[in-house]
Write a structure and sequence with these properties.
Elements lengths: L16 H33 L10 H4 L4
């Protein structure tokens, strides 16, 4: 008697459920990396052009003019 095993047909990786999950993880990882780089660049630019902060505190009496 011949023991004939049927050939198992493999689906391509991108058509399997596991493949979709892995590709979604890759996409989210790339989006996260781009967002982190953009955030870092914006913070660097903000600190480079305005190192003291969003505003400078000045005493009230310096703003008034004396006649």
């Amino acid at each position: 008697m011949d023991n004939v095993q049927p050939k198992i047909k493999h689906r391509p990786f991108c058509f399997s459920v596991k493949g979709h999950v892995k590709m979604l993880r890759l996409v989210f990882a790339l989006v996260t990396a781009v967002c982190c780089l953009a955030d870092g660049a914006l913070i660097y630019r903000k600190l480079l052009f305005n190192p003291s902060g969003p505003y400078q505190k000045k005493p009230v009496h310096e703003n008034k003019e004396v006649l």
